[in-house]
Write a sequence for this structure.
């Protein structure tokens, strides 16, 4: 199976044993380059738990092991614009602004070439 036939899941076993302290720079905890990994697949499913650090007022999110969607979009903007890889955000916290179908967060995600893994999404792993 070639790399382009795989599906990348950013919530990966390589990060499973890490503690929140390991996530100081979120994607910096990823072993290897997330940019290269995304460029190497047809579909990438990325952790979209939180849209931004101001999502839960009064709570320090810096120690939580989830990259913010806003940060991921900056990091992967070129890959999204190329259109070679379908990049989906998934695993949303109930407070995530991207869940609002008419909200600015969702509009920003879609306008920048990223996708939302809405309930019921099916991704074919068959060769075309």
């Amino acid at each position: 199976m070639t790399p382009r036939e795989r599906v990348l899941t950013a919530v990966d076993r390589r990060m499973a044993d890490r503690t929140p302290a390991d996530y100081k720079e979120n994607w910096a905890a990823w072993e290897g380059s997330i940019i290269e990994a995304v460029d190497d697949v047809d579909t990438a499913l990325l952790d979209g738990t939180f849209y931004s650090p101001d999502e839960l007022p009064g709570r320090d999110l810096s120690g939580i092991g989830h990259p913010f969607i806003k940060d991921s979009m900056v990091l992967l903007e070129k890959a999204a614009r190329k259109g070679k890889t379908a990049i989906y955000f998934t695993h949303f916290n109930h407070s995530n602004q991207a869940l609002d179908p008419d909200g600015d967060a969702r509009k920003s995600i879609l306008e920048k070439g990223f996708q939302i893994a809405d309930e019921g999404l099916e991704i074919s792993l068959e060769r075309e």
